[in-house]
Amino acid sequence: MPALASLPALGLLAFLWLGIGPAPQPVDSPLASPEVTGIDEPACEPAERMALEGRASPYDSVSVALGATQVKLCYGKPSARGRTMIGGEAVPFGELWRMGANEPTTLHITGMVGIGSLHLMPGSYSLYAQPGEESWDVFVSRSVDRWGIPINDAVRAQEVGSINVPRERPDSHVETMTFRFGEVAGTRTELILEWEEFRIRIPIEAH
């Protein structure tokens, strides 16, 4: 093959026109810039010690996108079934509760997130609470690879911190404990828990 530098100008043009040499790469070609891909939604990881099928408290999740950050909560959904749960023997006021059933209630985030005054790096965190008649303390811990109870000293040693939120009252009795995300305003939303005669709102903001 002749060297390109030795070809006359017209010969070089013909050389390229016939496809003998490499054609210049257009600047707007997809090969000229890396492909931009979205962030996958985090996956729930239920414990292997209990089959998902037939659970009295089904395993569920809720998720929301706050800008480029994905937020997902995975939890078990207990029901009252004629019992007084919050403020009763099962979930006494003033004692720590996993805010769900079976596995720890787990928050997965793909970006930096604020929960009230707490600042969380991307990762997974367990949530639990100390319910009260008029306000709740909600705790965030890095301890996630465990069963939901007990919430012992080892779990608490990994706490990021806690926030206090007021108790609200739903319009009617809520039989099955449910989490949902409220309306999104920019990169802000609320994680809302409702059960029986209780509702709390946990503020969340992506940074």
Q: Please, could you describe this protein's structure?
A:
- The chain is mostly beta strands and 207 residues long.
- The chain has one domain.
- Helix content is 6%, strand content 37%.
- The protein has 2 helices and 11 strands; from the N terminus they run H-E-E-E-E-E-E-E-H-E-E-E-E.
- The strands form 2 sheets. Strands 1-2-3-6-7-8 form a 6-stranded antiparallel sheet, with no helix packed on it. A 5-stranded antiparallel sheet has the order 5-4-11-10-9, with no helix packed on it.
- The radius of gyration is 27 Å and the shape is globular.
Question: Which strands sit side by side, in order, in the main sheet?
Answer: 1-2-3-6-7-8
- Give the N-terminus to C-terminus distance in angstroms: 58 Å
State the secondary-structure class: mainly beta
The helix/strand series, from N terminus to C terminus, equals: HEEEEEEEHEEEE
How many beta-strand elements? 11
Q: What count of helical segments does DSSP give?
A: 2
Quaternary status: single chain
* Number of spatially distinct domains: 1
Radius of gyration: 27 Å
The rough form would be described as globular
